[in-house]
UniProtKB/TrEMBL annotation:
Signal peptide: none annotated. Residues 87-106 are annotated as: Disordered. GO terms for cellular component: cytosol; iron-sulfur cluster assembly complex. This is DNA-binding transcriptional regulator BolA. Keywords: Stress response. Transcriptional regulator that plays an important role in general stress response. Belongs to the BolA/IbaG family. Pfam families: BolA.
Amino acid sequence: MVVQQKIEQKLAAAFSPVFLDVINESHMHNVPAGSESHFKVTVVTQGFEGKRLLARHRSVNQVLADELKNDIHALAIHTYTESEWHELNGQSPVSPPCHGGSNLDL
């Protein structure tokens, strides 16, 4: 839980979100048990008001630059303003199942 806690702390400090959800989705992938390499983050903050999706994602990537460089293999980012979040009834998209990397049936 070390990487997940770092992500939570950094995003909370950077964005003062009204809602923050950090989910370790590593168990859904072909990695050893207990891994912290695949994450889904949902950040809801008024700080995203007027910002395009790319700018929002870049700001999250910037905050998590060290973790992305050293710890995180995959990061799903969902960013919303409060009004967008309410329009979605407080639900972020469900992550698709992993197809096992090189085990894909093409």
